[in-house]
Amino acid sequence: MTKKQVEESLQYLKKRGFESPEIGIVLGTGLGQLVEEIENPIEAHYNHIPYFPLATVEFHSGKLIYGTIEGKKVVVMQGRFHLYEGYDFLDITYPIRVMHGLGIQKLFVSNAAGAINLDFKKGDIMLIEDHINLQGGSPLAFKNVVEFGDRFVDMSEPYDPNMRKKIEDIAERENISLQKGVYVSVVGPQLETKAEYRMLKILGADAVGMSTVPEVIVANHLRLPIVAVSVLTDECDPDNLQPINIQEIIEIAGKTEPKMIQLFKELIKEI
Question: Could you list the residue ranges that cross the membrane (predicted)?
Answer without folding.
Answer: none
